[in-house]
Amino acid sequence: MPNEQTRKKSLYFMVFVSFFSFLPIMLIVFFPPEIQESFKWRKQVSGLLFILICVLGMISVFFPKNCSKIFHQSGETISSDVLVREKIGFQRSSKILGVVLTHGHHPECRGFHHHEFRVGRKTCCIACMGLFSGAVSAIFGAISYLFFELPAGIDVLFLVVFGITGVSLCLLQYTFFDVHSGLIRFSLNAFFIFGMFSILAGIDGTVQCLALNFFLNGLFVFWLFTRILLSKSKHKEICQTCSIDCNLKK
Questions:
Q1: What does the alpha-carbon distance between residue 68 and residue 80 come to, in Å, rounded to a whole number?
Q2: pLDDT tens, residue by residue, 170-199
Q3: Is residue 22 part of a domain?
Q4: Is residue 32 part of a domain?
C-alpha cells in the first residue's frame, strides 16, 4: 500500500535524523564553541524545561489511549475494547482520586506477552514503566544539577557518550529487533530517558549556552516521538503476523 510505504519511509527518515543528530553533539564535545553568555538562570531554565518534558511524559504513560490518538493517521480507528479492556482475572487500570490510570494496554495475544509484566493482580506495560522510571531518575538528576555543579572528576565526554548510548540502544531495539527479555526492555527504556539528561548535563557543562540547551530539549522531544512511532510500527508488525482476527487489524 502506498500510504504504508510512505509512512515507513517517513519513519526511517526520522530514525536517520535521530542518529545523524549525534554527530553535531559529539562535535560540540570535541570542539566546543566559545560562547560568552551572562544569563545567570541558564541552568535553572534549561533544567525546568527538561523536567516539564519528563513530567508530561510520565503523565502520558498512564493515558496510552489518549496519547496514541496523536500518532494515528486519519481513517484509523482505535478500539477501546482491544487497547484497554481488562484481562480475565487481571486488572489493567486503576482508579486513583477518581482518575482512571491505565498501566496495561496491550492486546491479549501471545505476540504481546513479553510486553507486559504482572504485579499481584495487576498487569503493567514493561516499556511504559521503564520510561516512567527513567523519567523519575532524570528528574532527580536534573534537580540536583540545578543547584550543584558537576562533581569533580566526571568527564563530560563520558556523560555525552553514556547518554547517546542509551538513546541509540532504545531506538535500535525498535528499529531492528524485538527484545523478549522484560528486564532488558525495561532497562533500555529507562536508559533512554536518563540518557537525555546525561547529554544535557554534559553539553551544558561544556558550552553553557541557553539556546543550545533549548535545541537539545527540542531534540529530546523529537527522539521521544520517533521512539513512540517505532513502537507503534513494531506493534503493527506483530499484529500482521498474528493469526487471531481482532479489531487491531481493521
A1: 11
A2: 999 888 877 778 888 899 999 999 999 999
A3: no
A4: no
